[in-house]
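go over this record:
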Amino acid sequence: MPLSVNPSNEAIHKLRRQAECGLAGEFFNQKASDWNNNGLDAWLDAWMISHTADIEANPYGFVGAFGRWAIGNPNWSCRDEGSEDDCDFNPCGNAVLNGKRNETRQAYYVMESVNRLHTYFNGLNQAFSSASIVAALTKDSWATTFYKDKDVKSVTALREVLNAVTAVVGAGASFAGLGGPITGAVAGAGAALFAGATGAISPLLGQHQDNTFQKSADLGGLLGSIVLKGMKTYINANNLLMHGENFQDTGDIRTYLEGGLFLDFPGIDKVAVIDNINAKLVGHAVNALWRTQKVFIIGGGACGDGQGIGEGPQDMAVCRDGKAWYLYWWEEPGGLILNKHKYGWTQKPLGWDKLGKGDYAGVTIADVINSSLDSYAAARYAYGPETAVARAQDALQNGWGNPGAAGASWEGTFTIPVCDVGWAVTGDIPDKNYILQPTGKDYRPHWCGPICSGDVQQTRDWIGATNMANFQSPRFACPNEPPY
């Protein structure tokens, strides 16, 4: 008696899908790997070459021509013009699609990827058009919260913030809201999205480069308006790519579909996009204001201290790889002071208590320190806008990080100058037990030698980066004039 064969659940589902949808139903539940396993990159190249005349003749370009060929709809446009259904398609029961037989799989994969790429751009636009990002950025107290006038009535911090926005908007385009690095075959598409975004936003920034940030200036409002204008360029990006054209010299739609990136793309996490990019923008603004003051990071000894180089403020610390790093501001008194406080004292940076809560919930002291440490490791005290763009591009291209998902902790968001004094634990330097100090009016560090890695030039560079060149306070009471 022959054994009965019970088909697996998957086989039953496959038969059911084929019965309901035809041949296309066999290819549902696709994965990005299916794109590569079936040679879709080469197939799409060949299709576009052989259908050049059709693409040129169709008013909707590539997508219109492909829609006509694949599903019999020459009006499939996937343009961002306010329509909710110009990129929809139903593969079930479509005689044209199922009639492709040996090419039904490829046709379905391309249609699905194009649809999800269109959804991606729409999601970005909706996220950045949200009133919440404008509300979070629009504050009238930026300067008074994070900046203290001493000798001048204004600073040119706005220029640095605007320069940084280029990389921030690029990060927003390159998978903000998605966790983990972008690796493998899709890395090229991620890098293209970043490059397209940075290229699109740069002209907008040029319109504001001569602005001066006054204490009462609405920095947040300007930031918000620029970002919204920048993200609107994705309407143009979507339309150009769908038409088959090149976007910002990054390639045509094939660059963005390469490797099957959008074949199973789950959609935009709009809340995460808003939170991550808003945190970066807030971080860049705070960083620009703090960099005009004597704000610095110093550390490199063991977590918990107790090594003879002083004691740092534990509530302004990060323990990383067994080393402690501390965030400080050297506050100077106003007016004529004749007592011991005339040299100032180490303090917590202005506005530190606002971070991690309310409007600034997306930025923490740990973000400030960690981002600055990574900036220091990448470019010492020369981490500028060009470095930010190049490093983010490299991270996406080579899969070692995702700047869009990292929030304010991503390198370059903060570039507070870092000094590694860990060498002094075993090194010889006068008054080394005063290198680190708590914060408050009764504490003033003594830096009586080349405290940064034991190197005179590096210490000079750090002193300059912290706005303390020719500043006598940390030298006062040293037994000899420090060489820096």
